[in-house]
Design goal:
single chain, about 35% strand
Amino acid sequence: MVKVEAEPDAGGWVCEVDVEHAGEHTQHTVIVSAAELARWGRGDQLGNVEDLVERSFEFLLLREPPSSILRRFELSTIQRYFPDYDREIR
């Protein structure tokens, strides 16, 4: 289960993410810029930010356990570690 709560911030959003997966519980903070939402999101509203971050965590959880996911990162960081993110998340 991935639960995302986004709050507007200068130039984007700060998302607090709670993850429960395979018996692990972790918490993460993800920074999403307006440009990242425009590139990978499905619109520019708050619900779309939360949807994008949730889909991004589902992508990550298919590739690594929750404890391996960075605790705080910018959304675009995912693509540096997983080049297929751009293609998969659109």
